[in-house]
Amino acid sequence: MLDLPAEALDETSFVTVDVLLHSQTPRARQANVLVFRYQGRVYAYVNHCMHMQRPLNCQEDAVFDAERRWLRCSMHGFIFEPDTGICRSPVCEGQALQAVKVAEEQGLIVFKEKQLQVLAFHPAKVAPGQNHD
Ligand code: FES
């Protein structure tokens, strides 16, 4: 269970969560999942840029561009549609981040994947240039 209070994740922050995917199967593998809110809705993707196999926030604590229109990998700046995970940069165009099912229920953000085990939670980050004041 993620059990993150929904109010803790606003449009300016994101969290990352270490999880075990396919936790009940021989295919079990550890992954870091990026969770954020975009235009009011919560999304989650495996935090793994397909360009050079890095987390999107590997170079700085940011996963969006300055206008918060695109998810943006901090390594080389490749951009992704926040609501689909599809890459819009030429080298990886058409490939997509792996989506993880997530929902808001009774004031909590919860993972909806059947075989996912939360290993560690990394608190909300504030996007650069934005703050909660
Ligand atoms: S590793 Fe993500 S853009 Fe290069």
UniProtKB/TrEMBL annotation:
Pfam families noted in UniProt: Rieske
Alphabetical list of InterPro entries matching this protein: Rieske_2Fe-2S, Rieske_2Fe-2S_sf
Superkingdom in the source lineage: Bacteria
Gene Ontology MF terms in the entry: 2 iron, 2 sulfur cluster binding; metal ion binding
Chain ranges of the Rieske domain: 17-111
Keyword terms: 2Fe-2S, Iron, Iron-sulfur, Metal-binding
Keyword Metal-binding on entry: yes
UniProt protein name: Rieske (2Fe-2S) iron-sulfur domain protein
Lineage: Bacteria, Pseudomonadati, Pseudomonadota, Gammaproteobacteria, Methylococcales
